[in-house]
Amino acid sequence: MQKPTLHLTALQLDLAWHQPAENHRRIENLLAAEQKIGDLLILPEMFSTGFSMDAASQAEEMYGPSMQWMQRVAREYHTCVVGSLIIREKGKFYNRFLAMDANGLVAQYDKRHPFSLAKEHLTYQPGKTFVTFTYKGWRICPQICYDLRFPVWSRNRRLPDGSLSYDLLLYVANWPEKRVHHWESLLVARAIENQCFLVGVNRVGLDENQLNYVGGSMIVNPAGQQLDYNRGEVKALNARISLQDLQAYRQKFAFWMDADEFEIKESETLSIVRE
Q: DSSP alpha helices (H): ranges in 99-179?
């Protein structure tokens, strides 16, 4: 069933290094302080461990403790919990975006662009599938951190029926302070060029590699205006977004109709629907 207005809650967190239980506790404490949790609860990249290359010791199997925790939170707060985890599958490691609601797995997406500067590509398998999923009638596209630098991969494509492939674009990240200007600038650009709502969720704090993070998390409308934003604090961001407003904006500024058609080689497209 389509929900014309979607409430979004995004958590900007200070993550404890390699301590899933502690990170789960920090998230729960932040949720307990909120009056209302959104239909969609967005957590940062590798929210249970921090951005770690020690996949051998930190990886979980699918439906392991962190996924079970996500489902429990989804049930308690009547939401869909999304974020990325280190996942081991068939002897290989993935930086995997997962969406879990009260009934279980809604969608998964493997990071297409491992961050080579941190040698992520030597540990994690790159994803090959462009994923969208439908939740409460909203078409949603998940992306992870470094994917933000590659606009072709996230491009909002026209479907055979003439509509666009997604309404809401999500980026979950561990993006360091030294390049936070790039993060904030590119998030706004992606919302504008894809004529969609966008959520970018980053962490704060110092990690084990002495990298500092200041967040810069934001919720953005199709015109590139920030509906909520924070830099530097542990904080829950909230906004309500409207399908009617999105459709009206796309009709008034139909730039998407003039977009170039293209194909991405060696990739697949997957669309998942969960009402």
A: 151-154
